[in-house]
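Support reply, case 0932

Customer input (verbatim):
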Amino acid sequence: MNNSGWLRGMMAKKMSAEAFCECVMESVYKEIRAWGWNVILLYDWQEASEHVPVTLILDGKMVRIDLTKTEVESQQKKSPYSVDKMIWTAIHEQGIKLNNSVYMRYVWMQP
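Our regenerated output:
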C-alpha cells in the first residue's frame, strides 16, 4: 500500500465516524469535480438523528443516498475505503457512470 492508502488506514482507525465521513465526502466531491462535473454536495450529520442524508447534484441530476451512522461506523472499521465504496455503489446504482482513477482503484480493491 502506498502512502495514500496507509494514511487513509490511519485516519479510519483514529478519527471519529463523523470526522471520517466528512473526509470521505470531501474525497467523493473532489473526484466528481476532477471528472469535469459541476457538483453540489449536501449531507447532514445531526447529533439527534441516526440517519445521514446525502444529496449530490451533478450537472442538474439529483442523487440521494441515505446512510446511517451505524453503517458508517461499521464500514469505517471494516476497511479504509469501505465507506467510499458504499457511497460510490449507491451513486452508480442511480445511473452515474464511474471513471477510473487511482482513488477509484483503492475504493474497488477493498473487501
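We compared this against your earlier run and they match. Two observations from our side: Residues 17-34 form the longest helix (18 residues). The chain is about 55% helix and 20% strand. Please reopen the case if you see a mismatch on your end.
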